[in-house]
Every structure is written in C-alpha cells, then in structure tokens.
Specification:
Keywords: Signal. By secondary structure, the protein is mainly beta. Among the domains are: 28-126, no CATH class; 413-458, no CATH class. The strands form 23 sheets. Strands 38-37-39-40 form a four-stranded mixed sheet, with no helix packed on it. The chain has a two-stranded antiparallel ribbon with strand order 1-2. It has a two-stranded antiparallel sheet with strand order 3-4.
Length: 459
C-alpha cells in the first residue's frame, strides 16, 4: 500500500511541476494533481485531495508521513509533507484502530477505541466496549455494546437477551443451539438456520432442511440434499454420487466434489491425474492439485496437468504461465516466465511499466521508485520492506532492539528482552522469562524454573 502510494506520489509530483502555471482540479474519484478545488483564476489550489498537503505556493504535495501508520495520514503540511495534520482510522477485517495526529505522526487513540478527536480523546469504541466518560470501558458480560454506563447493556451478543436491569441473560432453550436472540424473559425472538420460531422457542426443521416455517415443509435443503422433485417441500440426498449441491431438484446436480466435473446433471470423475476441477467436461482439466515435490498447472495441449514449465517457477495455474517464482526471481508478466531479480531483491515483478522490487534481503528495502534494493540505513535494522529504505519497519529491528517510530531508530531493549516498545518488553529471548506479572523485565531461567517460558520442551 505504502509503496504504491509513494510511487504514484512521485508521478503526481512530476505532473504538478509540469503543469506549474495552471491549477487543474482532479475529477471526482480520480487523483492526478492532488488538487480538489482551484482558485477561480486557476493560479493556485485552494483545497487538496486526501493524502496531499497544500504548500505555500498553492500546489498540492503528496504526504510522506513516516511511521507504522504513516499511510493513514489524510492531510499533511504541504511545505513539510512528513508532518501529518489529520489521520483516518486503520481498519482490518475485524476491527478498526482509531488514529489521531500527534506531533506530526499518526498515533493510535487508545485501547479499544475506534475513533478519537484531535486531542486523542476517544469518541467511538470497538466491540464489547462502551464510551464512558471519554474512555472505552468493557461492558457487562455477554454484551455487544453499551453507551452510557458500562453496567447497562444496549445490545447483547448472540444467544443472550437484554434484561430490564441492563444485563444480558442467556436465552432459554439456547443449550439446543437454535436460539439466536431473545427478549428480557429469555423467550426466543430469532432462530439459527435449520430452526423455526414457535411460541417463544426455536424448533428444529425436518432433517436436512436449512430453512422452514414448520417441521413438515422445507423451503431450502442443506448442502448435498435437494427436493424429491422441483417444487417439493422435502429433502433427499442428491441423486448423483459425488454431488455437493442440488438445491432445486435432487436429480439435477449443480456442483460436484473436487476432482469431479459436472457433465449434464451428474458428476463424473475428472480423467487427468492430479486434476482438482474439470467442470463441464471431464476430459479437460481446469485446475490442478500439486503434490509435495512438483507444482502443476493445466496443460492446454493434453487437457491434463503438467509441471510448471519454468524451472524457477513455484506455482502456476496454467503450466505455461508462472504466477509465483522462487526466491530471487520475479514473474515477467508478458512472457509468463521467471526472470532474475535485481541485486539483493528476493521478490520482484516485471510488467509493462518496468521492474519493481518487492522484498529485499535482510538489511535492505526498496527505494521510493521500487527500482532497486537499498540499505535500510538504520542501525540494527533487519527489515524495511514495508516502509522502504530509509525507515525501519515496526518489527524490523534485530533481536534485542525495538523500533522508535518518532526517531526512526532501533534502540536496545532491556537485558534479556527480544523485542520491545519504548516502555515495555513484548517478549523475552529464549532462556529468559518475564520476572513478574508486570511483564516489563526479563530474567534468566534457572534450573527447575517453573515459569512457563522457561520450561524446555522435552521430546
Ligand atoms: C464521569 O466523570 C464525572 C467527572 O469526573 C463523574 O462525576 C461521573 O460520575 C462520571 N460518570 C461515570 C458514569 O463514570
Ligand atoms: C464418489 O462417490 C462414490 C459412490 O458414492 C464413493 O464410493 C466415492 O468415495 C466418492 N469419491 C469421492 C472422492 O468422494
Ligand atoms: C508428483 O507429480 C509428478 C507429476 O505428475 C510425478 O511425476 C511425481 O511422481 C509425483 N510425486 C509424488 C510424491 O506424488
Ligand atoms: C507494474 O507494477 C507496479 C508495482 O506493482 C504497478 O504500480 C504498476 O501499475 C504496474 N504496471 C502495469 C502496467 O500493470
């Protein structure tokens, strides 16, 4: 993410300089000059797009804020583009980490906080916590969210109902596993798939039925089962062996098990060895499995599976087109073959734009243009692939060193600590363990040491 950003930032800079005299605002949804709103006479920019800062000369300059959350800077100082003014939350698949601009960097808001104001005071909390007096406090047990008082729940988790006193009570009958939610009295209000609601309880549908309104008629069957004829309300096993679904009619298969292809309404074993899928025609393999020793791809000539053609290829879908090369080689997108990467690069790509290094050897990272691997340039730094040469990655320091985001240095941890942050040790070196429950200092393990990290695994 950061590298693509830097690259595109470099291009944008060139554009901005080329088109010096006239300000040209970007069309909505595109980023070219980085300007959102130009002055009427076109002499300068008035408002820049996200991730650009407005410079004194009226141009927009791409933000280059260092640090782990540097990418999340949405507005920076155009004359000092490494100084961030506004940050946006960093969201993963399961939760968001709220960020705020502090001393020019993007810093996390605080524990469980998903958004905070410019001063770092929390304004929104994550799951299972509520915003109480500016901090995120854990709600009562089995509560999904609370708003004003940590002891009073607003929304309970699955299988629990909200009682009048704000606690979450287990739904009655939930030991059967059918109740999704219930009212304060524990009576079911919603059921899981395969169950239906009846008189405040969840009752199981007929066997192999996944959706019903009563236990006699089924609206949708489980995988591997279908109605005994189109429109019927029962569930019987799919007629064809090796069939995994037949939702409309048990005699018409729609998907087959792996290494079987759908031919007409039935599943037929794929003919080629090592074939994983051959939908539509059992003779032509569309996806191959690989065994422990050889990577295989489909072979257009035979319809079967063959080893990836390039000797330096690690995996391929089509045997003639490599999708992933061995260390030190990169896919040449035009030829579908593997080519040696530039010096010190362990992974790279060659596409129509040129050569791009992606991962570098220990102590090296891609330069801004991603053209070559350069020394990280930070003492005791082993890895800078994420942020690029010039900055050490947050966990990129050598064992026994921790990374300081603010100063971009690897500093020595306390004795026996393998990895640390500025004020605490994350974990101890082998043969060392935390001295006490504050988990700050590590001490050497001694004979018969009972601390879990000291107990050597015996075979
Ligand atoms: C919030 O803080 C104020 C002032 O510190 C205090 O009087 C109040 O009781 C707190 N409310 C809760 C719910 O803790
Ligand atoms: C395919 O179906 C047959 C007949 O039911 C069964 O014996 C065989 O184990 C199945 N093969 C696979 C790979 O599931
Ligand atoms: C892996 O597949 C290749 C090509 O089909 C075959 O020559 C080789 O014997 C297989 N190895 C194992 C361990 O199955
Ligand atoms: C080539 O790869 C680089 C880096 O991944 C990417 O930024 C660029 O857009 C690619 N060019 C083309 C033509 O795909």
């Amino acid at each position: 993410m950061r590298r693509t950003l830097l690259l595109f930032a470099a291009c944008a800079l060139l554009l901005a300089h080329g088109a010096h005299a006239k300000c040209k605002a970007d069309k909505e949804g595109t980023v070219n000059s980085g300007c959102k709103k130009c002055a009427k006479d076109g002499s300068k920019c008035l408002e820049c797009s996200d991730r650009f800062g407005l410079a004194a000369d009226g141009t927009c300059v791409p933000c280059t804020v260092p640090g782990y959350y540097g990418d999340q800077c949405t507005k920076c100082d155009g004359d000092k583009p490494d100084i961030c003014l506004t940050c946006s939350a960093a969201c993963g698949r399961r939760s968001c980490t709220g960020l705020f601009a502090s001393e020019g960097r993007c810093e996390p808001c605080g524990d469980s906080c998903s958004d905070c104001n410019a001063k770092g005071a929390c304004i929104a909390c994550g799951r299972f916590t509520g915003l109480i007096n500016g901090t995120c406090e854990r709600c009562v047990e089995n509560c999904y969210s609370c708003r004003e008082d940590a002891s009073k729940c607003d929304e309970c988790t699955t299988g629990f109902g909200l009682s009048k006193d704000g606690t979450c009570v287990a739904c009655s009958g939930s030991e059967d596993g059918g109740v999704l939610s219930c009212d304060a009295a524990g009576k079911a209000t919603d059921c899981y798939s395969g169950w239906f609601l009846k008189d405040g309880a969840c009752v199981k549908c007929a066997e192999h039925c996944s959706e019903c309104k009563d236990d006699k008629t089924c609206n949708s069957c489980e995988m591997g089962f279908g109605p005994s004829k189109k429109g019927a309300k029962d569930c019987v096993p799919c007629k064809s062996a090796n069939c995994t679904s037949c939702y409309d009619d048990f005699s018409k298969c729609t998907t087959c098990d792996s290494s079987f292809g759908l031919v007409g309404d039935a599943c037929v074993a794929c003919e080629a060895a090592n074939c994983f899928a051959c939908d539509g025609n059992a003779k032509v393999c569309t996806a191959c499995t690989s065994n422990d020793t050889v990577s295989l791809g489909t072979d257009k000539a035979t319809g079967g599976c063959a080893p990836c053609k390039d000797a330096n290829c690690q995996s391929c879908d089509d045997a003639a087109v490599c999708s992933y090369c061995k260390d030190g080689f990169g896919v040449d997108e035009k030829a579908g073959a593997c080519k040696a990467c530039p010096d010190k690069a362990t992974a790279c790509t060659f596409n129509a734009t040129g050569t791009f290094v992606e991962i570098c050897a220990e102590g090296y990272g891609p330069d801004k243009a991603q053209k070559e691997c350069k020394s990280c340039g930070v003492e005791h730094c082993n890895s800078c692939d994420k942020l690029g040469a010039g900055f050490c990655d947050i966990y990129g320091c050598a064992e026994g060193f921790g990374y300081s985001d603010k100063e971009n240095v690897c500093f020595a941890c306390t004795e026996g600590c393998a990895s640390c942050t500025e004020n605490s040790c994350s974990y101890c070196k082998t043969g060392w363990a935390f001295a006490d429950r504050t988990e700050t200092a590590c001490t050497k393990c001694v004979d018969g040491d009972k601390r879990p990290d000291c107990e050597v695994p015996t075979n």
